[in-house]
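Regression check, D-glutamic acid case 271:
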Amino acid sequence: MGKIGVFDSGYGGLTILKEFLVSPVLSVYDYIYLGDNARTPYGNKSTNTIYKYTCQAIDFLFNKDCELIITACNTVSAKVLRSIQQEYLPFNYPDKKVLGVVIPIIEEIVEIQARKIGVIGTRATIESHIYRKELEERDVDKKIFEQATPLLVPLVEENWIGKPETNKILKKYLRPLKNKKIDILVLACTHYPFLIKDIRRIMGKNCKVLDVPKIMAEKLEDYLVRHPEIKNKLDKNKKRIFYTTDNADYFKDFCKNFLKDEKGNFQTIKL
Ligand code: DGL
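Current build output:
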């Protein structure tokens, strides 16, 4: 029997785990969260480094009995997930699955009747042009406008959410997308949902800002229905364990604030 692993470069993936924990369907499972806080941010690192860190995280989570891993990190999903799925997994863990955030978001965008899509993310995610490429592969009549917003992760990490300085930076980053009159904005980074209220206000009512954590929860529910061979192997004890590569006390404080009544186990590990 196994658990669901959620991996992120730091705290950001908690935005996605939170949605899993409030879903009546998903909250019954056991979760292991791994935040590589000691080596965050990944968004400015090379592909080789991100690949190496992700393989280490995957080894760790599968050794802790995860059956399925969600890489909540957009940078990981954009830069290395395909190679991991096509090269690393078949060789090392042929029966296990690692899923990312890009394909679920793309599936959602394809369903929505909108043409102009804005995407904001780390430099690594935006420079990978993954959203544009995936949509082009599906040959849909949509235009993508991409914008790297590298200052947002440190602002969230410093908890400068809602501060005038942060809103000024947000306005500057979002102005080009607003000028393009985009219909949909994708927050392609785990940290940005912390800023969603201000982003929605700045973009105005004509732009739909996708709620990525919610989409991920819906897609995971759907995935488990379609994959009973995985679903049937998952433990349902509502256990939550949190591992971080940095200070477990800081991590616990952050979780307490953000996940509210979270009573998991918190440990520092070395990858
Ligand atoms: N987790 C990363 C992402 O979603 C943001 C933080 C980082 O750069 O590591 O892209």
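Comparison notes: Residues 3-100+214-268 form a domain with the Rossmann fold fold (CATH 3.40.50.1860). The two ends are 24 Å apart (CA to CA). No diff flagged against the previous build.
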